[in-house]
Amino acid sequence: MAVFLRNLVLSPSTKYLVKNVTLAKNVASFSTCAQRWNKAADELDELPDPIDLATGLEKRELLAELAGDPDPFNVKIRKRGAGTRDQPTEVPSAFEARIVGCICEEESPSISWMWLYEGKPKRCACGHWFKLTYKAPI
Amino acid sequence: MKNHQFHLVDPSPWPIIISFVILNYTIMTLMFFNTKLYTPMTISLTFIIWTMFTWWRDIKRESTYQGNHTSSVMVSMKYGMILFITSEVLFFISFFWSFFHHSLAPTCELGLMWPPKDIHSFNPLHIPLMNTIILLSSGISVTWAHASMCVNNLNTTLKSLLITIFLGIYFSILQFYEYISSPFSISDSVYGSTFFLTTGFHGMHVIIGTLFLIHVFFRMKNIDFSFTHHLGMEMSIWYWHFVDVVWLFLYMTIYWWGK
């Protein structure tokens, strides 16, 4: 018997709206039984996926990390490569110039900072070569 | 073109507005102290609340709807909250300092005793013990909420948050009852002054923490969080634990040791 009642569903995940429910299925709603706390079929029981919920830069960062780029903003420390004039260490940037810091020796107490320009490989005072490579912004 | 992970905020009117509103509130409160005219103070307080609401609404928009809070922005926000809570701890340390200053060596005006002569202090095993149990239980339920959030269980998170909010409100009600039934007032010797100043500020922090949790509850219902990005919730939980810990010290020193 489908008797429609105006029933206040007191579930914490509803918006306390008055809903149409059938008597046959919701007899427990009239009792003090914990049944009334159970969620309705159309309610979320978990929050959306973090990437679905995210937007803007936050989402692009998450997607870049998912795509296998652990350093989407090119700010983390990287191991130097061979560093010769023919095989300079490539430094990614989305701009035509950026600042690079070279840890010349393993125990160096300081970092040698320098500007690096597009198309102009640069040699640090320690003899290590760097070259700017273009990496599209995220 | 922006290609960095930091959030350089847009020009906002709220910092300057809140500065002037707080200045106004200070003056109006002093006016209330001197003339008992409370309407200007109330109006000023309304403006403070309105500015806070709009400022935090903008932050919500910047994070949830514009996606400006990248992982490193989240880290800096956490540091900000840690520093804020540290400053709050020091704020309460000043009240405890004052309490111990007066209670450890009571002057002859107090009768060389603590509590001072003819001050009937509260029995720590009555309402204060109940309040301790309430706050410790709310600490459990808020941890439950956080744990449910981390496993992406929205239903349990909302239920346990509701329990925490209920316990917070219950604490405030009991504290209010204790205040109205108190046999001493804020002007009854330094005991009354330190007692009501310290427990009063703690009570205000409980109310703010409860409002913060209620705000988080509605944001959760509005689906503003995900199980990896819910800074507002995390910070409300930190704040709640801070309030909880302050109460434990209050209970141990002012209610129990200082009885």
TrEMBL record, chain B:
UniProt gene name: COX3
A Gene Ontology BP annotation from the UniProt entry: mitochondrial electron transport, cytochrome c to oxygen
Subcellular locations according to the entry: Membrane
The Heme-copper oxidase subunit III family profile domain, residue ranges: 2-259
Gene3D superfamilies reported for this sequence: 1.10.287.70, Cytochrome c oxidase, subunit III, four-helix bundle
Function: Component of the cytochrome c oxidase, the last enzyme in the mitochondrial electron transport chain which drives oxidative phosphorylation. The respiratory chain contains 3 multisubunit complexes succinate dehydrogenase (complex II, CII), ubiquinol-cytochrome c oxidoreductase (cytochrome b-c1 complex, complex III, CIII) and cytochrome c oxidase (complex IV, CIV), that cooperate to transfer electrons derived from NADH and succinate to molecular oxygen, creating an electrochemical gradient over the inner membrane that drives transmembrane transport and the ATP synthase.
CDD domains for this protein: Cyt_c_Oxidase_III
This protein's name: Cytochrome c oxidase subunit 3
Residues annotated as transmembrane: 12-32, 38-56, 77-100, 125-145, 157-177, 197-218, 238-258
GO molecular function: cytochrome-c oxidase activity
InterPro entries (UniProt xref): Cyt_c/ubiquinol_Oxase_su3, Cyt_c_oxase_su3_dom, Cyt_c_oxidase-like_su3, Cyt_c_oxidase_su3-like_sf, Cyt_c_oxidase_su3_a-hlx
UniProt organism field: Cyamophila willieti
